[in-house]
Amino acid sequence: MFEILLAYILAVFLLIATPGPVVALVIRNASMYGFKTAFFTSIGTNFTSLLLITFAIAIILGAFEISPFALSLISIAGCAFIFYLGFSSLYHTLKNYQNQPQKESEPQCNKTKTNKTFVSSFLEGFGIAIGNPKDILFFVAFFPQFIHITDSILTSLSILVAVWILLDFCILMSYALLMQKAILLRYKNLIGIISDIILMLVGVFGAYYLLQAF
User: Fold this and answer.
1) CA angle 56–59–63, rounded 5-degree value
2) How far apart are alpha carbons 8 and 161 in whole angstroms?
3) Where are the chain's structural domains?
4) Residues 6+ apart with CB under 8 A from 85
């Protein structure tokens, strides 16, 4: 049973650490706005993960059903939101860069930091994570593979959920802390632009894939 738990921890670590839209958003906010903003963004994504996992557990226990069509519609809206986040951030970054002299670029970045509220950071994290409700189906398929770590299904699910949330938060915070290194702060605008482009591509290709399925 302990071996199953270790396998689960390794699988979750690899899944979460792999760069995706959530990681791109946390990196962007950490590089452009600082650690606290990334912290509240991560809280938002964690809260969403907990909601999606709760729905998944309800399905596993047979207490809830969800329409695949409804999931697809919400996913398309989520892709549009992800694209919007990347596009709007990239637009403002490039606009500020063009309008400000090179010597004033750093003060402008500091000004931008003060305009980013913790509530908006939380909502960004919540929005980008809830934008992929098909994660519910992933959890439904994923958790049963490791559900025998204890003799009780509820106890096993509680442990699996706790491990997922803890690893999710710690990994995202590791990315945020890494972005505070001086050598990376020198390239924070470039890192922010790359993260925005990744978000836009995820939104475009995600929507294309979903529309192809209709």
Assistant:
1) 130
2) 11
3) 2-213
4) 25, 124, 127, 128, 196, 199
